[in-house]
Amino acid sequence: MDIETLRELCLSMPHASEDVKWQNDLCFSVSGKMFCVAGLETGTTPQISFKCTPEKFAELTEIEGIIPAPYVARYHWVAVQDPTALDEGDFEDLITKSYLLVRDKLSAGARKNLARS
To answer: Cα(95)–Cα(9) distance, rounded to whole angstroms?
Structure first.
């Protein structure tokens, strides 16, 4: 999945926003909580990271080209280093589920603010 396709997908989620953190990472968030991150290193294929369920984490990290995401694997984030490890439909499904996992864990106040906007 290329960066523009990823941006289009992530920003299609209700209340999703994007910003660049740590100088080289394009981050997609809902109510300030990240659900997807893509590396912006020039000249390389972007590494795409996202949250998943514990079961899916175990399944995905068995696939060559997908590793536990550095620093956040304990929260069940994976990093897709090889874009051919998943087809585009799987990427879309997994990133959508990541968004839903993060959105559903927002505080009651944050969810209420989203409902009002």
So the answer is: 8
